Amino acid sequence: MNKLDAIKAFCLVCQEQSFTQVAKSMRLSPAMVGRYIRQLEEQLGTLLVKRTTRQMAITQAGKLYYQKVSPLLAELTLIEQELSSFSDMPKGQLKVSASIEFGGQYLAPIIAQYRQLYPNVELSFDLTNEPIDITQGAVDLVFRVAPTLANASLKVIPICTSKLAMWAHPKYLLQYPKITAIEDLANHQLLFFEHSLRSDQWIFLKNGEIQEVKLPWAWKTNNGRLLNEAAAQSQGIIQAPSYSVAGYVEQGLLVEVLSEHSIQPLTISAIYQHSYQYSLAIKTFVELAKNYFLLQPLP
Questions:
Q1: Strands 141-145 and 263-273
Q2: Could you give phi then psi for residue 239, rounded to 5 degrees?
Q3: pLDDT tens across the length of the chain (299 residues)
Q4: In which domain, by residue range, is 16 found?
Q5: Are residues 148 and 172 in the same domain?
Q6: Where are the transmembrane segments (predicted)?
Q7: What is the CATH number of the domain that holds 216?
Q8: At residue 62, what are phi and psi to the nearest 5 degrees?
Q9: What is the pTM of this model?
Q10: What element of type H or E holds 157?
Q11: How far apart are CA 278 and CA 266, in angstroms?
Q12: 57-80: b or e for each residue (b if 16 or more CB lie within 10 Å)?
């Protein structure tokens, strides 16, 4: 058994909750991923992942093992990057695009680490919620939430996960009728995040399937920060990634609504053209981002 690959596979299974996705990420078969997990379990003498034909769950022992080994794995990768930089230092320009909310909240520490490791790369960042046609060459690398891509010339690398949920101030929920089902939302003040990538609807998980629902919006905006602030001031209910509202949740200003219908996991991916797969600047930035979120997962 290649124990390092087995540990990597197990950590990715914990993050992705899918053997199939891990197999794609590691360029292995799902059967090989399962074999790695079984070999680890045999060596450790304990069950790490409960598996049935339809679902899987990480055991308590598995969660503990992940908490212990994932930081070590990320640290090892960083050490390998630092050592390899003596012979292979990326150079030139790297143009990166991300959504305003994700990029504004989470890219700064990654940029700091990257500049320390690779000072010869000239970085530039475009934060926008508008769609980016990466094939036009305006940017080299794009971070986006759960992209659906038909263009085979694009490579998609999962970086981290969050969840898409509804949020409201506790005071607001006391002032309006109780919400027990999606249909109850029509009687509430709903604040909509509007941009060209999203249709005029919210999406929910119901009976194991994604459902799109058009609702009566109180008002709309293309700025997530404005929606977060309005919801935190008891103006209504929003739908947003949990990483976007984490600070408000920690302060008790927002709580989750209808959690059973939240979309989880919500995957944030790095996207670039297949023709750029040998770009050292792109490769090192993507790997650094993956390792950063392995150590510090998104809310």
A1: antiparallel
A2: -115, 125
A3: 688 888 988 998 998 888 888 888 888 888 898 899 999 999 999 999 998 777 889 999 999 999 999 888 878 876 766 665 555 678 888 999 999 999 999 999 999 999 999 999 999 999 988 878 787 778 899 999 854 555 667 889 999 999 999 999 999 999 999 999 999 999 999 999 987 556 789 999 998 888 999 999 999 998 999 999 999 999 999 999 999 999 999 999 999 999 999 998 899 999 998 776 668 899 999 999 999 999 999 99
A4: 3-84
A5: no
A6: none
A7: 3.40.190.10
A8: -65, -40
A9: 0.67
A10: strand 154-168
A11: 28
A12: ebeeebeebbeebbeebbeebbee
Dist CA 108 CA 192 (whole Å): 27
- Distance between CA 255 and CA 242 in Å, rounded? 10
Tell me which H or E stretch contains 246.
helix 242-250
Same domain, 73 and 199: no
> Tokens in use for 271?
């996207």
Q: Which residue among 28, 50, 84 closes a domain?
A: 84
- Distance (Å, rounded) from C-alpha 111 to C-alpha 187? 44
Specify whether 171 is located in the same domain as 248. Answer: yes
Structure tokens at 286: 């993507």
Pair 205, 262: CB distance under 8 Å: yes
289 three-class SS: helix
Query: Number of structural domains, the chain?
Result: 3
